[in-house]
Amino acid sequence: MSNSPLVTYSRISPNRTSPRNHKIDTITIHCIVGQWTAKQGCDYFATTGRECSANYVVGKDGSIGLSVEEQDRSWCSSSRSNDHRAITIEVASDTKHPYKVTDQALAALIDLLVDICRRNGIKALLWKGDKSLIGQVDKQNMTVHRWFANKACPGDYLYNLHPQIAAQVNERLGAAAPAEPEKKPSQTPSGATFTPYLVRITASVLNIRKGPGTTYAVTGQIKDRGVYTIVEQKGNWGRLKSGAGWISLSYTKKV
């Protein structure tokens, strides 16, 4: 097992079990309840008298710290079985509900998740918000601390973003949303089959909407100016391959 090359600071905590006893197949996102940098988080886990740690710490400034190597189990989720199979990530957050994180931290978290999935053979992140599916990684491979203890972690801000986080990671992994039923190829008015195509986002922040138009609810945002696949088009709106929703093509450029 390797560690992420995105790490900007490393200080290994003694609070760990070496080695982990299970293949990495799960992701658990936490909030650290403090607007810290990765260095501050890693230094805390390395020196605290409390029995706690995490594999990674994502700082408020987008820094990424390694606190427990991926080959080892962190002490993070109040569940030994979960921590043995999961990569645990503490993200800097506000100290009050809903424990909001910065845009820099969220972008770094998504970069880190993409890297973790690629290196560990996780083809897609699966999220249904269903505690009964713990351990059934073919149906759901994301878990949260609140399922194992009487805690608010990861806070409502990150918890409610789980569908968006999974969709953005899966888009970059080239994986369609697993929960989305397979659709028949779209057709133009003339009956021709629609051919998917790639676009690069040109806006710094682009809303993802539930349907093709501004009257539909916003379900997420794209902030990485990355390349995305359009699998259906209605007017000047395109549907994302990930299943996250629709984007305005006015803020994209064909690749």
UniProtKB/TrEMBL annotation:
InterPro entries: Amidase_domain (IPR002502), NAMLAA_amidase_2 (IPR051206), SH3-like_bac-type (IPR003646). Residues 194-255 form the SH3b domain. It comes from the Bacteria. PROSITE patterns: SH3B. This is Amidase.
